[in-house]
Amino acid sequence: MEGDALYSLRSNLQDPNNVLQNWDPTVGNPCTWFHVTCNSEKSVTGV
Q1: CA distances (Å), 29 to each of 17, 18, 38, in order?
Q2: d(CA 14, CA 28)
């Protein structure tokens, strides 16, 4: 669910330098995405 929400956010942002290029909704865990921080339970805590 968090990955879907972040991907939706990304689709509404301009990213001219492609810094969010690895935000891939097919990857199960958004904690592996650039510029996403997570806690020890693998819940997103920051972008």
Answers
A1: 23, 20, 10
A2: 24
Q: Break the chain into its structural domains and give their ranges.
A: 2-46
Q: pTM score > 0.90 for this model?
A: no
Q: Which two tokens stand for residue 12?
A: 């509404």
Which residue's entry shows tokens 């097919």? 26
DSSP states of the chain? -HHHHHHHHHHTS--TT-TTTT--TTSS-GGGSTT-EE-TTS-EEE-
Q: If you compute the radius of gyration of the chain from its CA atoms, what whole number of angstroms results? A: 10
Q: What is the mean pLDDT of the chain?
A: 91
